[in-house]
Amino acid sequence: MAEITPVNPGEIQFGSVKTLKGHTDYVRSVAIKDNLIISSSLDYTIKIWVLESGLCIKTLEGHTNDVNSVAIKDNLIISGSWDKTIKIWDIESGLCIKTLEGHTDYVWSVAIKDNLIISGLWDNTIKILDIDSGLCIKSLEDHRSDVNSIAIKDNLIISGSDDTTINIWDIESGLCIKTLEGHADSVKSVAIKDNLVISGSNDYTIKIWDIYSGKCIKTLEGHTDWVKSVAIKDNLIISGSDDKTIKIWDIESGLCIKTLAEPACVYSVAIKDNLIISGSLDKTIKIHPITLFPNESVKFQSVINSYWLPEYLEQHLMDCFNPGKD
What is the pLDDT of residue 298? Predict the structure, then answer.
């Protein structure tokens, strides 16, 4: 495994949260590309927002049921819906340039690699579709219940299912080469970085797995309701839950280093640079700015956080470190 530097709680600071309003129903999925946020909702639409200003610049309409998942590649948006279709949209124009109608059940999740679209379905299958022809190339069948989430690494597909398992598939052959077992309830979200698979489950936990051995390395406990979404950046895992929180975890230690309280259940999280993006039951998207290693006093606070100190002594040390503080 690549070397990862642990993070201390005091080494993260948060800026003002920006709230984006415009959807008229739950926000099911968020994704980021450059300076744009893409969101999908149970209001049947996809919206494109400018990251810096928070303005909605386009609303993509065409689905006839909940839009559960969005993915981005170059200038294309891929969306999967309960109307049993996948749509391909042009980001610049906002126009739907292709509708893939070969599915026979609800589309829960979509991902994209090169010229392939990967979809996870309510009928327990995963479909591999050619983006140019729109044809289904392969149907992957091994899960025993809904496929909720898809992630891709190189020639591997990672899928999370209501059957409590995570499957690892070879794209070329379509064969399931490994099944990761350990969750006690539905797996709602999967993400991947290097040789690590991250999974979020209805059993309230997040698990870190080694993709090659298939072993669970760590189980992260702290959420008090279903974990709906996980994302990963560098040495941080971000999780969103029905317990109305977003948690930030250190991969190396497995510790929760920050909890962000939200007004509603969090359905989707994404991270780009120093921004956490979330989509929620309250119909909004939120942008949480975070800063790592902002100044020496915060670094010093992280040292204090590593030890138990009486409150008065902790404050005295901090005052000495910041002599100009009132």
Answer: 35
Residue 83 lies in a domain: yes
- Evaluate if residue 154 carries a pLDDT over 90: yes
Token pair in block for residue 317: 């040390």
Instruction: Tell me the pTM.
Output: 0.85
Q: Note whether 155 and 180 are same-domain residues.
A: yes
Same domain, yes or no, for 225 and 194? yes
Same domain, 174 and 246: yes
* 18 vs 35: CA distance, rounded Å: 15
For residue 161, pLDDT beyond 90: yes
Q: Give how many domains the chain has, as a whole number.
A: 2
> What mean pLDDT do residues 176-182 have?
97
Residue 311 has phi, psi (to 5 degrees) of -55, -40
Average pLDDT rounded to a whole number, residues 28-41: 96
Residue indicated by tokens 């091994």:
142
Q: Which two tokens stand for residue 195?
A: 């040789």
Question: How far apart are alpha carbons 301 and 74 in whole angstroms?
Answer: 42
Name 122's Cβ contacts closer than 8 Å, sequence gap at least 6. 105, 106, 107, 108, 146, 147
**Regarding beta strands 196-201 and 236-241, do their DSSP bridges make them parallel or antiparallel, or are they unpaired?**
unpaired
Q: How confident is the model at residue 290 (pLDDT cuts 50, 70, 90)?
A: confident
Question: Residue 77's domain spans which residues?
Answer: 17-290
The tokens of 304 are what?
A: 């204090």
Q: Which backbone phi and psi does 318 adopt, to 5 degrees? A: -65, -40
**Residue 248 tokens, joined:** 């930030």
What is the C-alpha separation between 28 and 63, in angstroms, rounded? 14
- 233 vs 236: CA distance, rounded Å: 5
